[in-house]
């Protein structure tokens, strides 16, 4: 099936659904308004047709609309917390609009006096779902200067291995699977669609309202080929006015600013929302004991130097304007976005490889359209459509022909990265997603998701050519369907099926024809999964989930470049069978609140794609290795009112080389490292957070909060443990890092100031072999929030 | 005062205990092992953790060796492009911009001396002028010239560096120079070849330019050409493609090849420069495929003495999937003597043969899990089975004499 035909089907489907929604408007509808006794419009009042599976909720202005499939007499029940229920008999005539109802609810003061609500936040609710999820409510840590990656690194099963300071390259793993195995999203949209400046290590916490990490098994809404898991950053989706502005300044000349805000003009249902962040850091932290040539002694000696070529700047701006609460749309937004970054590169893969002229700069632009309509077909169908076109461009430059030393001096030499280059990478991209949920019956829901992601990859060195005349193009079509059923009110099951289609298109030079030819292929794969949770009590449950999932091939992995990288039409996607089994237990007593969760996981990932180098220096991407990961993670949280909180978590993962034969051949001699522990990968780590807070009598709702957090990573081997002599076996040393933060808030969080110290004891910290991370660093942050 | 839950104290106690009790190193320094006579380099592990280990053995002719706990992990210090002489390794680390001298002792690689060095884009070829003098050549950024360096390996100082002068002019259609590992020092002169290629479609210009250069100033004094091939010897360090025999004649193999315009592959051939001559011997040309029926594999032509040489060939035409075998050739005639059918089909590897006293010691990675060093004696024309290697490796990259 061609890419264009699938896009056509997608558009047809979207138009059909939209047409159906309009058709639904022609049925008998009844509208009205619900007010309080004082004449104020009431929002969120439940309006239900008695005896039918039909209902809605009132909007901000108290209005509601309800559609009936058939004419007849009905009783509408109006109810809301804090108000007495009210019933209204109505008669619905075929194909007519009826006069608006005016309902007044009386306050139920008795209810207010007697009921104490102990609510569960969205993050807690997610953790009690069938999927194995780390859900982090970033609103609670909005005063920290940490970026999202550092926040995630404190949760179970997650490892963020950074090569340096702000903006440095990093490897993010979920339960031992990393790189292309893990997909990142912002409100369900792949993060890299917004530009290569958008990444976990530069997005401030204030941009997010919540982060969801799906381990191994992901819901179909996140339509992607995520082998090891997905991270979804959720922004503020409320329809209220708000403004959140913050700026922090700290060690290594680090500035981080963030602004998110929204203005709603209610009479017209007009909304303008925007977000922006700016990061700047010189990253000139001290490198301890690095080698430098001493010409007097004629030998290398160890000295301490500050990093001198690691400045990082990034900026992002995103604006959306749209309409809400229209009959034909709950939400319709158009948006534009821009991202840019400017990065100096200080080292190669080890700190002995010192760069002084390598730069990486990029920018991305995007336009987007977002549409959402709920409560179609008698409140059974909700649909959402999202589409965006983006253009991302970055340049890696290495033009200095110098060899730098840690003191910043240099001698004339070779290209620092090995090649003289101004490598341009352009990625025009079209992304579209349709999501629909349909309520089949009470406790039976159907979810359908279709994602189309088409990206072209143009790469060229502008020192030798002006463009890429042999670009590769990859179109991904991912269809996911999920059926969720709730049995006995305690047992929720989600059954999932996924279709993966990839359309590969590459231009390549044919030496025998002496011209560029076009190569094309379409491949199909099917995935499936199941997630189940059984609630033993409202706060206790056990759950399990399974998914057979893929990471699809890239165009260049399949076709290569026709010269240096050979094509491999036999290349398969990376595949994995992922299993989670876990449970959670929550309890409360008085002001105390406990929550404990634990999960065991199993990942059998096969056919990891790497470039194999042949003797003639040619490369070919092949399915070269298999990995088996078994492990567990556990977390306990405790709250004592608003006074004290503690968190303790631990992750253990036993990742084994599951590649039975050498080079992953189908037969032959058993590989020496078969069933050996995978080296160069953390396998035991944990976190401890302690918080102490006090609400102050003055300052109009002031609060003082102290937080201590400790992160521990056990040491691990750089290469295979079982083969080397002890003297030659390199290790990445243990990490024990303590961070502290003191924050002061006034007027119930409107004005905030915080002082944070990371790596309090100034430990020499490594995530990678011989790549030092920053030592002690202090940051001060001011934040203003109004809602 | 807060009323802490007793479980909280338990959790905190557990937390502090687990963050404070871990040791920081894998163990204590073990006793120093006995020095080894030979090093067999093995690459093993699944991607991306494919590491190089050096197996120190005392004999290539007998016994067995198992890597477990005995391999010297050289991954972060050396790679298999090292140059070896007198029990030392020499390595040009292009990414760190240093040249070093190393020794294998106490179960690890120790640094004898390192100094900054950036004069070559990478090491293409090397030859020994004498036991203390190493000459190296390599490309330059932009590929419009060839650089050289002369190192005193005893003092570990740079004696001389510069750019080769007098290179033959490059054709307009193929303006870039490539240099390989076919360099030798003969008759007080340096000999090596260059070819030209195109930087856009990377096709080769079908002409071999073999040069005689003055030493130590690397001025080209004579150029001889041949249009039957457009290859070079593979980069030395990794490979061995040239030598000067007992008679003082230089031989080299053009196994580093490529595509010519129109998609044709250039031939892999053996050439000779006679003692006292500065040009290719017009009476000598060995088309390897035509002579032995198989295409020469990457980079292995070694002198055995007794007028014989060993060459590695690939068993199928597709070099990327082919296994390799070995053939013995008569150097003087350029004719095949016989194929070493006793040695099993083996993975390509790189410099997996060591030659000493007329014997070739071949580390053939058969892929069956148990392998051997196969010994070919050029005097008796017999193959025997030597040291057993328990494996599951990806390649045997080198065999070197350590002392």
Automatic annotation (TrEMBL), chain A:
InterPro entries tied to this protein: Beta-barrel_TonB_sf (IPR036942), CarboxyPept-like_regulatory (IPR008969), Plug_dom (IPR012910), Plug_dom_sf (IPR037066), TonB-dep_rcpt-like (IPR039426)
NADP listed as a keyword: no
Cell compartments where the protein resides: Cell outer membrane
Pfam families assigned: CarbopepD_reg_2, Plug
UniProtKB keywords: Cell outer membrane, Membrane, Receptor, Signal, Transmembrane, Transmembrane beta strand, Transport
Residue ranges occupied by any TonB-dependent receptor plug domain in the UniProt entry: 126-229
Coiled-coil intervals, chain numbering: none
Signal sequence extent: 1-19
Bilayer topology: Multi-pass membrane protein
PANTHER family, A to Z: HEMOGLOBIN AND HEMOGLOBIN-HAPTOGLOBIN-BINDING PROTEIN 1-RELATED, TONB-DEPENDENT OUTER MEMBRANE RECEPTOR
Family affiliation: Belongs to the TonB-dependent receptor family.
Protein name: TonB-dependent receptor
Organism placement in taxonomy: Bacteria, Pseudomonadati, Bacteroidota, Cytophagia, Cytophagales
UniProtKB/TrEMBL annotation, chain B:
Keyword terms of this UniProt record: Signal
Signal peptide, first to last residue: 1-22
Organism encoding this protein: Ravibacter arvi
Protein name, entry field: DUF4374 domain-containing protein
Taxonomic superkingdom: Bacteria
